[in-house]
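Async update (no meeting this week)

Hi team, since we skipped the sync, here's where things stand on the single-chain job. The sequence we agreed to prioritize is pasted below, unchanged from the tracker. I ran it this morning and attached the output directly underneath so nobody has to dig for it. Comments welcome in thread, and please keep replies under the output.
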Amino acid sequence: MEVFKVKGCIEIIGVNPYLPLPDHILEGILAQAGKTRGAIPVCGVLEGRKYTQTLVRFRGQWRFYINTAMLKKSPQRVGEEIMLTIQYDPEERTIAMHPRLEQALGEHPAARQVFEGLSASRKKEIVRYISNLKSELSVEKNVTRAINFLCGESRFVGRDKP
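Output:
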């Protein structure tokens, strides 16, 4: 995979800092990915630290968002010039569903049906949230919250009822 070097100023949309990518770099990454739609996984080095990120299209433009894990205080650094390397990342990033969530969805067909009807990104958000929890108590509590959310009874991970 070709590694591209990028130099540019951090911009912001809403509360999200991002770096616009030059067209020739974006075209190279999209060609490597073999697609021009959906999320494009990328990786590279920013300020000497490796990162993994996803290029996403928002309001008609591809954006390389820079979160605070990648660059400390990134929202306060708008206008700052940075340098990084970026390349398409072909590594699989699928997150396995926690067995307790899988079991709960099996026990609640209505919740399973709503879950299957969610966008891929919303499903991934729920799976990732629960899969990254550390304690079994947290898993149990949040699986219950997720099922209640899917059944239209409450909010979950900052989202309104589906």
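Quick observations from my side:
The first helix runs from residue 23 to 33.
The mean pLDDT is 91.
Reply here if anything looks off.
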